Amino acid sequence: MAETNAVQAPRLRRQYEDTIIPKLKEEFGYKNVHEIPKIEKVVVNIGLGEATTNPKLLDRAMEELALITGQKPILRRAKKSVSNFKLREGQAIGCTVTLRGTRQWEFPDRLLSVALPRVRDFSGVSPKAFDGRGNYTFGVREQTIFPEVDYDKVEKVTGMNVTLVTTAQTDAEAKALLTHLGVPFRQ
Questions:
Q1: What angle (nearest 5°) sits at the alpha carbon of residue 16, between those of residues 13 and 19?
Q2: Residue 71's pLDDT band (cuts 50, 70, 90)
Q3: What pTM value is reported for the model?
Q4: Which of 15, 57, 95, 126 is the most exposed place for a label (fewest CB within 10 A)?
Q5: pLDDT tens, residue by residue, 1-12
Q6: Which of 35, 33, 161 is nearest to 96 (CA)?
């Protein structure tokens, strides 16, 4: 008897395949399986304008983002010089991670079930943050809501933008998908 080391699918993905697909199919009357919206990728950004004066902040932000997402972030550099902000072209000002595959399901699961409930006075995320093409972006004010971040080692509290890129054609389809996935929209 051979033992298999099959990797189990992430919890949110199993939930999507088992319960959410039939609900969306019934709700919108999709005839083709490929019409049903799904998460295409998750993009997490941290922008640090203060990194122009203190480059160590960006190094720490990259370490924390790697801890939170489980993937090494890439450095983002300024595309143009802006004299009012003392910013030069090519200067490092942020970092970003694009999650696909297994991580694109694990990160939103941890975000929705562990991190967002830890936000003080949390009343839900804005239902108006769709871009018109079915993608949803919202901001997280503190990286300390994630249990992976050691609160004692945090030098500066930084926020981040999380974008859930879906294959939905309209915002209504995307909102239905995200609601079924468990995104707590404000009433």
A1: 140
A2: very high
A3: 0.86
A4: 126
A5: 455 555 788 899
A6: 161
